[in-house]
Amino acid sequence: MNWNWSHVDDFMPLFWDGVQLTLKALFFGTLIAFSLGLVWAIAQRSERKWIRWPVTAVTEFIRSTPLLVQLFFLFYVVPQWGPSMSPLTTGIVGLGLHYSTYTSEVYRAGIEGVPAGQWEAATALSLSRRRTWTAVILPQAVRRVIPALGNYVIIMLKESPQMAAIGALDMLGQAQGYSQATFTYEAISVVGVAFIVIAYPASVLLRVLERRLVR
Length: 215
Known about the structure:
This protein is mainly alpha-helical. The protein has eight helices and no strands.
């Protein structure tokens, strides 16, 4: 098979559109996943059963359901009862909501890894519950789990092509459409290389960060 560079040149405008959409979905989806995951983790430690049990049930349900099914539900079913969302917004919400249930487990492990003496010290100093969380527990817990959270960013990147199923044309969605229209394979190859170029340096950076944080 010969590589036809003319097809690559023609595909590049679509490719960059796909890159922008992928990075937007990844950025905002990560914000949702990290912030909502922390909310889930704290709520699951609540002393109130009426908070803890429903949150646990919801996170377990979301974690046990395929991301693609959730994207279809958000895009096709939710508008029957409420406002509809664009494909990109649906992809962002879907990625963020789905992976918030995984980051919640990461936060939970970090919180449980904080020595019991830190809780006791906060109690001895008569710190309020909010002050204990914000000044003592969370700074230590988050520092411990940053590398694990970073891994989920890479996983979200690799899962982002599923958004194409609802019309959000990320890098792979653009390549698939172009390849089907032109009966060529170069666009798929470009996207494959792009994922490697983005994901591999990120994974190396995470390993470096992990080594520094565990010192």
